Amino acid sequence: MDNTEVCGSSTDLAGLINCHFIFNALNTLKYSVITDNPGTCGLIDDIAAYMRYRIRAVYGFEMVLLSEEIRYMKSYINLELARFSHIYAEYNLEDTDFTLPSMSVIFLVENAIHHGILAKKDGGKLQVKAYRDGLYNYVEVCDNGAGIKEYSGRYPESSNKGIGNLAALAERIERMKGGSLLIESVQGEGTRAVIKIPA
């Protein structure tokens, strides 16, 4: 992500934690407690599960089943839905029984929400799809948000050299699984990110 911040002084992989996410998630929990929201315990479980999974990735990306990645992705999305009333999420998960680098889908979801949907006043919809077509497995993360400004078909420039950089994510998918990452975007209409993994 372009806005990933560093907790502490380290700028290597082990030091990359999104401080804004932690701060905002705790504020969401605080509001949930104050308003006596019956879903508060679920939100606590979500932040604990998501942060544990993210820290695992920070100390070394690993191959995980998509079903596991989806479980923690939903924890992340639940927290964002609790913060923003104008975000909608939709899932169509036909096939999740294949492996890919950890955090791959989650980082695409983070990008879709924060650089796509939230960049539009009226919010929008996030769609996550997983399916198999012939010799490949696919994961799609689509949004109807702001799109990428002046998109030329190349990964957007980013000052962040760490775990949220799209070019670095594409390299991990190719190196660890022999797959690829495709980004399609139209300004004002949204973005479609597709992970393609050999079955």
Question: What keywords describe this structure?
Answer:
two-stranded antiparallel sheet, 7 strands, 5 helices
Structure description:
It contains five helices and seven strands; from the N terminus they run ααβαββαββαββ. A hairpin with a 3-residue loop joins strand 6 (180-186) and strand 7 (190-198). The strands form two sheets. Strands 2-4-5-7-6 form a five-stranded mixed β-sheet. The chain has a two-stranded antiparallel sheet with strand order 1-3. With 199 residues, the chain is α+β, with helices and mostly antiparallel strands.
Count of extended strands: 7
Q: Counting H and I runs of at least 4 residues, what is the number of helices? A: 5
Q: First CA to last CA: what distance?
A: 28 Å
Q: Strand arrangement, largest sheet?
A: 2-4-5-7-6
Please summarize what this structure is.
The chain is built from five helices and seven strands; from the N terminus they run ααβαββαββαββ.
Helices and strands in order, then pairings?
Elements lengths: L18 H16 L5 H19 L4 E3 H18 L3 E7 L5 E3 L2 H14 L6 E10 L2 E8 L22 H12 L2 E7 L3 E9 L1
Parallel strand pairs: 2-4
Antiparallel strand pairs: 1-3, 4-5, 5-7, 6-7
